[in-house]
Amino acid sequence: MLLFEKDPEVSMVIAEKPPLHDQLEFFIEQAEKARAIRTAVVHPVDGNSLIGAVEAAEHDLIVPVLIGPEKKIRTVADEQSLDISNYEIINTEHSHAAAELACEVIKRGEAEALMKGHLGTSELLRAVVHKTKGIRTERRLSHVFVFDVPNYHKPLVITDAAINIVPDLFCKKDITQNAIDFCKALGVETPKVAILSAVEKVKPYIQSTLDAAALCKMADREQITGGLLDGPLAFDNAISQQAAIDKHIVSEVSGDADILLAPDLEAANMIAKQLIYLANAKSAGIALGAKVPIILTSRAEKTLGRLASCALASHMVHHK
Known about the structure:
Layout: E1 2-4, E2 13-15, H1 23-32, E3 37-42, H2 47-58, E4 62-68, H3 70-79, E5 88-91, H4 95-107, E6 113-116, H5 121-128, E7 142-148, E8 156-159, H6 169-185, E9 192-196, H7 207-220, E10 228-233, H8 235-239, H9 241-246, E11 259-261, H10 265-278, E12 282-288, E13 294-295, H11 303-319
Parallel strand pairs: 3-4, 3-6, 4-5, 6-13, 8-11, 9-10, 9-11
Antiparallel strand pairs: 1-2, 7-8, 7-12
Helix pairs in contact: 1-11, 4-5
């Protein structure tokens, strides 16, 4: 795991391990030691989104650039007793204009990350992927959740639970590469990717098993780089080495996965919500694949999740 030197250029990193079950807090502590990243906050016109931006700024995680209707932003700040006098505000008429302008600010090199405020995720991402005005890259956008699961021995990434509904093989290729690059930014030297399905063997009538086999071969041919892939794996033998042994599966990934690649959004989302509500997991997440990391926090997100999501974006920025 990375520990950034507090320096304007952040030129040095030191390897450390996060304490068990305080993993998100550890990422926040690391990011606080680095230079705060300049972040375009899109349409922060409600209490949660503006509080989240101010909290992250007070923790030295971001330098917010507040983009949206200035009068509404200042009204919310007064209602919530927030001091935003030190933060730049760029006035726009509405949320759509705020999203477009935020992308323009990033294209000009005036911001290093994008943060969702009080607007729909789809509205924000439409501006991000616009062919001429957006900040898309050759990669597909994808989302990663980072979980601190009490009975798992390290941070666990699940993808994609928020953007790509039914990804095809080449979409899964980008989702996998995004997740690998992300884990490397967190200090994982060779991220281990478990490609999930309902079974462990390739079955011609289960598409996710065919995709898993193809992704593994793509990694062999360096179409996917930097990680160690195995699949298809069922959830039990991806997470438990003993389950893999019981099923006679020989795998370097089983029981030690860093990344769980789900077959589709529905499966990923259900796994994520189950970990939160049944296993007391703590979570944070960001979107990847654009020119900058995108902080997509839910309106119901608690303080830890908001700060951790900003910290993850900081790791991505400084790793570049």
